[in-house]
Amino acid sequence: MHELKVLILEDHSFQLMALHQMLNANGVFDVLTAESVDVARQSLARRGRVDIAICDLHLDGCDGLELIRYLAESGLASSLIILSSAERAVIDSVGALARQLGLRLLGCVQKPASSAALHRLLTLYKEPGSQVVIPPPSVDMTELLTLSASSLALCKSQWVAHYQPKVCFDGRIRGVEALVRWYHPSMGLLSPAQFFPLIERAGLLGSLSWHVLDQALGLSASVRLASGQALPVAVNIPPHLLLQEDFAPRVIQALEKHGVPATVLTLEIIETQDCQLDDRQLEALLHLRILGCQLSIDDFGTGGSNLQRLLDLPFSELKLPSEFVRGMGQDGRKAAVVAGAMMTARRLDLRVVVEGVETRDDLLALGDLGRPVMQGYYIARPMPESELRRWIVAREQGGFEQLGAA
Ligand code: C2E
Ligand code: MG
Ligand code: MG
């Protein structure tokens, strides 16, 4: 085993040391050790590609999936050993994901690791083509429901933002809304309606939303790199997140991390009655507004506390939900509701974004009502980042008449 080079990612220093010694005992001496994903990346950047990465799944503050994806995308490791005490279903899913990403999975070592188990997997590396066969996970929705919160949290890197464009009436792109999807290794693409109940029950909606915010700001920054202008992004924020003391500082931290101005970010907060902010929380929101973040009331008119909240909180935008807009071209009552909401917004000096524009008739009806910013299937469906980039390039070459072509 002398020629093997191995990376260990394990955030408990004692276990890290024990694994290091086990590798030495197995004749592996070229070992990189890391207690966090960042240190692992730095170490790989300094010392180059490894043959095997031994990767703990449960890390303090994040999960090993981030490193697994990084290893696959960068090609800085060819084989993987998963270290975990997670449930079988989780390990199976992680294994499937790693294989899907193109990593050779040697197998899993249950914690605490034993030298014998490690030896068996290191030997496998030598056998060309060998790969521990973990049966493809046969998870159905009911099995998902049995996942514990900590197991679910490990799936974070599979929660991927899709983006739906928002356009002005003349066709110019005003920005995008980040809408999360779960790229489940065996169940495919899951929409919020399918997996949010699970996430909410596990208390992970906040963590998911921070994760999406990070991706969206990353997109905005990379568009700026390519075009010189940061792409405005809107991110959905569950109201309870506003109650967290560190909410505003975390948003600012995320903006600083990606080096984009606060003006590119809109926080969409769904209407609800049960979110009473105290003075300090309100002050933190105001601070964000002063920095330039936009604050949007999502699905306006569906939460029951609409006008009161508009007066209480420093909103700058009002989003009208699909229910009001879909079919308004044919339904005068819907058109009246939309017209009323738009008038309210104008009087309160708020921007309006209309969701659910599904047909050309809906779009034309909006033209008669003040030409708000629009979002909807008629313009474009939510799409992955790569597709959005192509969409933006195509849109930049076209005008208003192209809207329906997407
Ligand atoms: P939302 O923020 O009001 O997002 C608009 C929803 O309408 C999206 O559903 C979008 O796909 C859908 N939509 C867009 N255009 C049309 C249209 O023309 N017709 C119809 N019928 N629907 C349209 P999606 O992506 O399934 O998201 C549903 C909800 O889940 C979102 O509603 C939002 O409240 C929540 N959500 C989505 N992503 C996130 C996230 O990253 N964090 C949080 N906290 N919530 C999220
Ligand atoms: Mg929204
Ligand atoms: Mg909405």
Summed up:
With 406 residues, the protein is an alpha/beta fold. It has helices at residues 13-25, 37-47, 65-74, 88-100, 115-126, 141-145, 149-153, 192-201, 205-227, 239-242, 247-258, 279-291, 306-312, 322-325, 332-347, 360-368, 385-396, and strands at residues 5-9, 30-34, 50-56, 58-59, 62-63, 77-84, 104-110, 159-167, 173-184, 188-190, 233-237, 265-270, 294-298, 317-320, 351-354, 373-374. It folds into 2 domains: 5-124, Rossmann fold, CATH 3.40.50.2300; 142-398, EAL domain (TIM Barrel).
CATH topology group of the largest domain: TIM Barrel
| CATH-level-2 architecture of the largest domain | Alpha-Beta Barrel
What ions, cofactors and ligands are bound? ligand C2E, magnesium ion
Radius of gyration, whole Å? 24 Å
- Class inferred from helices and paired strands: alpha/beta
- List the total number of helices: 17
Shape: elongated
Report the sheet with the most strands, covering strand number, pairing sense and barrel closure.
Answer: 9 strands, mixed
Distance between the termini: 55 Å
Average residue-wise pLDDT = 85
How many β-strands, per DSSP? Answer: 16
Which strand-content bin applies to the residues?
15-25%
| Count of individual domains | 2
CATH homology-level superfamily of the largest domain: EAL domain
The low-confidence parts are 130-139, 399-406
Text of the CATH class of the largest domain = Alpha Beta
Helical content stands at 40-55%
